[in-house]
Amino acid sequence: MAHISTLILLLPLLGFAVVLLNGKNMNESQIGLVATGVVGLSFVASVIDFVLLLHRSDREVTVQLFNWIDVGTLHVPAALLVDPLSITMCLFVTGVSTLIHLYSIGYMHAEKDYKKFFLYFNLFVFSMLALVLANNLVFTFVGWEGVGVCSYWLVSFYFDRDSASSAGKKAFIYNRVGDVGLLVAMFLLFSRTGTLTYLGVFEKAGTLTPTVATLVVLALLLAATGKSAQIPLFNWLPDAMEGPTPVSALIHAATMVTAGVYLLVRMSPVLALSSSGRMTIAVIGGVTAFVAATIATSQKDIKKVLAFSTVSQIGYMVLAVGVGAYGAAIFLMVGHAFYKALLFLGSGSVIHSLNGEQDLRKMGALAKFLPLTYPTFLVGWLAISGIPPFAGFWAKGDVLTNVFAHNKVLWVLAVVTAILTAYYMSRLFVLTFRGTERFREETHGHEPHESPWVMTTPLVILAVLSVFGGALALPWVHHDSLANFLSSTFGYVAPIASQSTLSQWGLAAVDIAAALIGLAAAFSIWRSRYEDEKLTPKFLEQVWYWDNFYDATIGRPLEDLAVFSDAVIEDEVIDGGVMGLAVGIRRSSQGVRKIQSGFVRHYALAMALGLAVIVVYLVARVG
Amino acid sequence: MHSSLWLTALLVVPLLGASGAALGRSKQGLAYAIAVTSASVEMAIGVVIFFLYNSHVAGAQTFDFATRHVLSAPFGLAYDVALDGISLFMVELTAIVVLLALLGGRDKRREPAFVSWLLVLTSLTMGSFIAHDLLEFFIFFELTLVPCYFIIAGWGGKEKNKAALKFFIYTFSASAFLLIGILYLGFSHQHQTGGVLTFAYGVLASTSMTHSTAIWLFVAFAIAFAAKAPIWPLHTWSPLTYAEAPTAGSIELSALLAKLGSYGLLRFAVGLFPLAFADVRPVLLTLAVIGILYGSMLACVAKDLKRFVAYSSLAQMGFITLGVMSGSKIATVGAVLLMFNHGVITIGFFLIIGFIENRRGSYQVADLQGLQGPAPVLAGVFTVVMLASIGLPGLSGFVSEYLILIGTFAVHAWWAVVGAFGVVAAAVYLLWAYQRVFQGRAVGANASIPDASTKERWVLVPIVVLIVALGVFPRPVLDRITPSVQQLIQHVAPSGVTK
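Predict the joint structure of the above. Result:
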């Protein structure tokens, strides 16, 4: 078991090393094969590990790799914790990664930096696995930062484009703000419990005072808002769409951006200690889900719609965490990984067929030209909209039911968000695949062509998963539902008065109604038009002016301060003051004597002579 | 206990090299060959010492390779050297710096003189780090100004004279306080014991003094070291000096001589005046975090790359000061490790800036753009160095920064929290600089620069190796530093030993 778990982690790193050291002698298809192969093998190892874990009575296995940092009372091993939560994460991370690697072989074909792309991709998978497999917070931080830097590289992949390099920088810096939260959480936990391993912290969590527990939870939440693009740090994610589309699918939809949710779920025994902390988490999640959904209704770029949709869906996950529905959060995370990866890859296929066009207004009627992309995208669209029996319906329904039991206000907000979700996704679907052809200019009159098999195969597999993904957590299908499997890793959750069958059916009906309302509205509006200023107001298109607000309140004042410091404080106040003082002391003690460079030169020479004398003296005495 | 001759060799080899280079000036390139050879021998000795060093010499003492010869009893002058886990890594850094500065920052103008000064400087710096006697330390410390002055004034840029003068006056004035402090301490010890005048570190550490005397002495010491490090607000010599110095000079100054400041602060100010520690600590911790934030801010708007590194170093020295003044064992170990790591990182920065300057004739940010296109290897190495400086886990900078912050938090939470925002700031200024210099579309002269040559790559390899190795496997270093820091903290702030 220890060896297999180590293999899960190290295989992608091996791929990275092989391509890094031997990439010069490899052609494109060999690089693609190695990079995809190692991730695929990592998936196989995850499956084996999963089966092994299922047959154990004790489902918490710690695997020591080596002793990383060891100073005084601070012991930080590089060690893995294999338990139901981490293995679930491994399975879907490696599974979805394999498919997206495969897709990228086709998508990135003939790109100049093909090799670099796969290097970063493999390194990303390694980092992501380190993040979820680590047995302590510091090692998790290794993965946490590793995925961040891979995201930086991949967002600014086309580095000669200013928008791309700025977006990469923005993503990294926003994440760093969140990282302060994770650092502070670690500092607090270490100073209070003396350990940073998950199991150690959980064991001593009871000794935390309520204030400290709340501070830790809030610090973790800050970390999660950075990595998982939640309010107030969400607005880096839409810019991150500058990266190649497989990057958006893998990093900015399916895996990395869910890391914040994973962290919160992982730390659920600490979350259990602070109800005010959990409430804050729930509000942040609910509000983010709503705000991002409103923005998604007014975006003109196909990838931007999907980006805000991701923010919104992660908002649901965070909301689920906030109400203690950890199982539902992970269920939605897995389901979302399937259908959002599918939607992104599908949009990539669309963009590919239109020579790089991403503007929804220049698409339309693509259904008949893309015989595989179209039906698979249709599945993804229905899944995210919450139409039964697709995965999204079950996963989102699970979240909504739990929210209903805890807080009716947040539940209403979540249902409104569900309507918006169905609306913006249907708008995207209609503008892309239905209606009139508006793309001839971009394709120079040619007909769009379907993508090669390496790109469409992942689409088909993800579509199948999006259809049947709901089965993961249906208790009447099999006893070992996802929630049961995971429950041992969760912190204490106050039992909810279980819903009556009637109210369960009622809630499901509300969900379906919400989806249908949104869907119908979008069809009736967007079937006949592709542009409408009133329905895509500037306020929403400009992301509630969020960037402008940060720029005006933080960015520009700081820049002004820096420029002022450089010109005035540095040169005149500090330098003037210190040098003035030095000269003043000399003047008062030696009368008016100008410090000429000649004086210093002579002085330095005298010192040099002195040095020579001392050296001779020393040699004479010692020798 | 190992023979002190190893340490003597560290002093003598560069001096022999300097003499050889000076004598071999008639033949083209001979001086350089001699210099590189002696720097390599120095490095080899450094490696041997690393493996020989034994932190369990006698009792709780962690000084190895020690010896003491009184040279002149009436003046209290002695040759007294020893090495512990703290100075060990300063010695290693000194050896690495001179070798890489020679290999990567070769300056062919009046080469024999240039390499001789570099080697003399190396010997003096070695002397400062292994000195176990205050007066001896002061002599070495002060004499380093001489080769620095001549390197800057002789091989610097347009404003070299102004820079050299400013550097000299600044550090020379500040170290006057140190000399007064040392003499006062020595004489008051002599007065107390009625015996001979001595400046031996171990002996002076037991000088009894009043609380206020301790504070005054600490302040006198701290001024000299703060100007050297530099610690805000005594830093304004550094941007000009780093910018005007030749590449090798900038490397020596920022990667190495700055560490004399932080090392001195830890060893002599903190180590000798535990009585004052609690009182001056809030002041220096505050200056440290100001330095972190202020340095980061000015690095954002720096107009050339050398000033940029100067301000980023100010921020990094802020982290080091935070650790040194924390009174926590973990943070102090982190500070010592960061002194070494920051040294290596800074060599990387200045070497690459030097390579760029050689190609483009400029290190102004405004003149550079899109260099990643024509020079992916240079950009790649710069990225690694940059990420280490940002504190990316897996690279060296993280381990040290993390230890400093987590240790400081345990004793002074708020300073650590403010310091943690320095982690964000580092990402801002470094990524911004990277974007302006390496990203975007390269046009004109920027589009046609050659990538790193084979020789340049070999110079950069050790830097990348050290950055990755100490990020993944810092134990050999931490295990050597920790016992010595434990000793020091035990003496200064006993409650910090477990933190």
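Strands of chain B lie at 64-72, 77-83.
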